[in-house]
Amino acid sequence: VKMDFSTSERALSSLLRRQPSITHPEILSVTKHLLENYHRQNGTSAATTTTPTPTPPPRDPEKENDGDDYESSVISLLALGQSDRWEALAVGLHLSVEHLTPSLLPGDKTLYPEGPRVPSLTEEKNVEENRRRPTTSSSPPAAADPPSISSSSSSFFTTNLLPILLSNLEHPEPRVRTLVAKTINAHSLSSSTSTTWKEERIPLYNAITTSLFNHLESGRGGTTTAAVDDTTGWRALETSLNSLAAFFAGCHYHFSSPDDAPSCEQLAHTLLPPPNGPSELVSLVRAVEQCCVDHVNRHVRAAGLNVMGRIISCPPLPAAYVHSLPVLRDALTRILEVGLADNWSQVRMAASLLCRTVMVACG
What we know:
elongated, two-stranded antiparallel sheet, 363 residues
């Protein structure tokens, strides 16, 4: 039985039906409890949930016996999954994303355009609206007003999810790594005003970039030996890039002075958590450029293009930054020139999306 992460109910049910069977008694007990909780909250039963809903309804703590009990059960599933079966860990991460998302993203949610093997990264609707809003040359687009994260969700993330994400960023199972990226995305879209939120982003950024640079340095399989093809995986490099794209979804800061000339320092302050500065930004952009242009693996090239699109669109950069800042202009010129002529349609599609993002940013 394949794991199904289309809805929370499907994820929990497929965990119980998984072959080879889950035999850990605590995993089975927690999973059954969460599944019963799901049916009770939604007024359904196992017999009536044969068809998944496109967007499952948000959790309503008032319909649950105890809101803390739900979080405790999810945490238990995550902990058990780390020590036993990856499937339990993946389901726990999926439930964590669903738990955070309703409180972070009320209303309609826009999915980031995706190609093969690129995870769905939820994007704020008002970010896209701000990016499309006409602007003058003297002022950049207004930064989006992010929804506020509740104190309980913040505590849930800081105390329980953050250590799990940091320890599983390079998990051997790619589905776990993809869910880690989705959880980072949910956290990134939470709040740009909370001091706790900003502090949480520092270890996330450090872990993601450390993994990225280590993979680029060591090559495939932990060695400098080149890959024999460009279709198979490249350890955690692709999902590290997807996690970086998810991280940049939280860049909601206003530019400090719209009238100032574009500066690498100001852009670094906008995109990166402290104490990172211009030198770190230049190194990061060059690393992403290497992934987009020089890397042999097509999935890595497509993921790198996704990251560059996030850098341009979150936050919506003023046209002056795209035109005049050498670190961006030179990288984008080479990336688009090579990406749009790539042999793989997957990469050309990602390059086309990046090209559109650049054109919109330039007005």
